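Known limitations

Files may contain more than one protein. Parsers should not assume a single record per file. Below, a two-record file is shown to illustrate correct handling: read the sequence, read the token line, then continue until end of file.
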Amino acid sequence: MHFFKALCYAAMLMVIAVQTVTAEVHRYLYLSSPDGAQGQNRSGNGILVFDIDNGHEFVRRIKIPSFSEGIRGLTGNAKTHRLYFSTTNHRLGCYDLEKDEVLWQRTYDVGCDRSSVPPNGEKIYVPTGWWYQGEDSGLLVINSDNGEILKRVRVGPQAHNSIATLDGRYVFLGTRTTLTQFSTKDERVVQTIHPVGEEGVFPFTVDSQNQFAYVCLGSHVGFDVVNLETGKVPHRVFAGKEKIAHRTHGVGLTPNEKELWISDQKGKKLFVFDATEMPPEPKTHVDLSAGGHGWVSFSLDGQYAWCHTPDVIDVESKEIVTTLKDEQGDPVASSKFIEVHFEDGEVVKVGNEFGLGRADY
């Protein structure tokens, strides 16, 4: 009898071992279309899914009718296994990655720009939009379960991009030449940094230690370095041998935080800087196949860079290694995309549409 029990137990361990060995993580890029800020390389309506581990081959299209309003942001959360999308028509929606369905959609009197969700997945922080200049411009704090407004935080005009930090402690919001840092516990303002950037409100990113933020310039290709510990802007860095007199829209740290990339969409380039130096030093640039809205982000493992063009770039070699194409074989692009990992049908990791520093995560 004891022998039989031992045999059964051994067999069970073998099954578990086999399952452990054969369990496989599948990595996908979820790209939304049409981009509400970019006309180039659109591809109809919905989320286009690409297989990262199979040469970024097109897998399928998830049709969501409200996407025709133009997508303004696409964020996600691994704990809730959901994506949250915002549209030009003041709409915020929630898509369940495992159930493969839209759970809820709501519209608000103000707009919905690039939103963010802390790791616990409980709240969505929704900027009211760069196009909205009312006195009550700022953040909507939304219940992620049903889209109900929990709080409205007034900040300043043209609330555009928001980032929830990977440690879950803070949310950053970009408004006109201002960067505001909030506590996620109670939405208390930790600090307001002004002025930053040259004009308007533009993309930014933060490192994994919440020590530095990098904010795109509005009149030149370059960025401001913000010291988040002092609230000062000690450095302004320009790309190129001579100043390039048009805006920068897109900045990202490689996950290991060794490089900082910025977008020159008009010049069809991504400029690369050595982020191990302070201020970051220029290294090289990547020539892109097209112009567009401007954006840059990275795969979680740091192997690939994605931007506002159909180009997929190898981070180490700085070479374009493939092109994103839809089911018709046409090049497709958007500045609203996110990486998702599945294992046995369950979501295990979700990336970020911003190029956040991840050296400590």
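...continuing to the second record:
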Amino acid sequence: MNSLPDFIIIGAQRCGTTSLYNYLIEHPKIKPASQKELHFFDINFSKGIEWYKSQFEDNYITTEASPYYLFHPHCPQRIFDILPYVKIIILFRNPIDRAYSHYWHEIRLGAETLSFEKAIEEEPSRLKGEVDKIMNDEKYYSYNHQHFSYLSRGKYFEQVKNWYNFFKKSQILILNSEEFYSNPQKTMNLVYDFLDIPKSNSKKFKVFNEGHNPIMKKDTRKYLSDYFREYNEQLYDYIERKFVWK
């Protein structure tokens, strides 16, 4: 019988999940899943639990990293029902930078054709009614919800609160992406402690899935700074921790 993951990296997208995952699977006690992003609890849930189990090896600490889990409205309940004691890791990046990186990721995928400014203007109409459709139909897949949620995914407070409704705070480790990249070993030590495994030191931390994007327009950044200010403050109050995001 195959095992189930001991911990899951659930997001956020474009916040360093690929780098964190690759650093973790270098640890001798951790075995990766068949691939980093299984998307079982969001997109592939209909494949069934046996399919999910088959993606992991027995007798090891196992993990996967699907950054859509954090944002997908069904995931907290689904994961709790199957893995009530799983440990969860979340990476949060300045939501302005996350949104812009997300946008250029979609450009590279060929999914986005609008300018960044037009895309965030159109986001409410693109996402209108999509969460209701997802919640009302277990099999419904929303392309727009996954791909065009540039600002919505940066409202971290709403998402964290949803996860805390199901899991104990002691089961969830929240990391700051900026701190992770500036001092990866320090962040990894926090993760090792959280997972209760021996620390592993690395001499080199390669950045995975890095995007090289044009500089954002100053007016756009100012607009987004104002837009996210209240959401960020809500997050800081809720998790009792403040990040240096400008």
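Parsers that stop after the first record will miss the second one. For reference, the second record is described as follows. Residues 7-239 form a domain with the Rossmann fold fold (CATH 3.40.50.300).
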